[in-house]
Amino acid sequence: MTYSEQMLDHIEEGTMDQAQKDFAWALRKDDDDTLYSLAEELYALGLTNQAQRTYLKLLDRYPQEDELRTALAEIAIDNGDNDEALSYLFQIQPSSPAYLQSLLVQADLYQTEEQFEITEAKLNEAYRMAPDEPAVLFALAEYYYLIGKFQEAIPFYFALIKAGHLEFAKVDIAGRLGTAYAQLGKFDQALGYLNQVAPGYQTSDIRFQTGLTQLALHQLKEAIITFKELAEDDGQYASVYPALAQAYAEEHHYAQALTTLQEGLAVDQYNEHLYAQAAEMASHVGDTELMATYLKRAHELDPDNQTITLQYSNFLLHQGQDDENLALLAPLVDENDDPQVEWNLAQSYLHKEDFDGAKQAFEAAAPALSDNPTFLRQLIEFYQEMGMRPQLREAVEHYLAIDPADSELQELLEQLDEDY
User: What are the start and end residues of each TPR repeat (predicted)?
Assistant: First the structure.
């Protein structure tokens, strides 16, 4: 048995002191092929320092072997030393058999630095050199996939399948194609590929994507089964709960949707979106008290989320809690860009008979909501009640330009004309 083999045995047994002694002897006594295999094994085990020492020993003996430089560059990248990695890679010339691999390693390095133009240039150079090389096809496919260019990724995944690679580097290609098509909104194609993913690659992410695709295709019963099985098998997969609740809600099973979201909150108790969604389901089952609790908690968790704030505001308005609504929305006025905030404020001011506040809020919202019939109706009623005839006439005319068939407002305009 070689010292390298003895070292690996001791690593497996957990006797690291003896493994270190065997490593020292291996560097002195084992032949070069054995040392190369040892370096690969050590790198695979995550023992990068020992792997690096072994590769450096071999590079000292074989300075012409550029494969050793690419291996050392990969270790340097793992260690966060990109400059050292590039120093190895730049020593490899285009005439070297290792040049193609060096391009792939460079692409990986530049991608970690988010230098995507250089990454793409390196990968395209590799593709021009070896357009049929599976490692190149996979690298290009993964690059486009990971930066969200799914349409560009798909042809390279197809090329891998055509070459007989249903999986590569422990990645299921059908799963990648299914997810890519789903991201492009091509759900029929997506589900076809997701259903082909091998059992060993049916990760929680793939199962979740399958459920989302079924949901998008309105295959609600199938989506519910997929999500329920995922929740049973991986209860900590928090994203499954809002998706399962949505499927239940689309089937009008609101009580089950609410229970599902409550289960999700037990897993992810600081997710404001779960609370907001749970509040919506509580409204469907008529539990006003629970709805208030969830909306308040959602707002507390993310007070800057204007969507949640307005959802809470709408609830307060509906419940006639105008003081609470004013306290909620008043701080948003100066930095607000959503006219719904002003509209909701106007309604509460009006309920409180603060007519100056109502007028100011209505008119602040009016430019953005000038084509909203419901808003215009409220504005017309306000102007009518306040006796603001010029403003009333203008608002009525504007409303009738949108809905000329409204006989009630036609009569009001005629009356205004007669009075004038």
Answer: 238-271
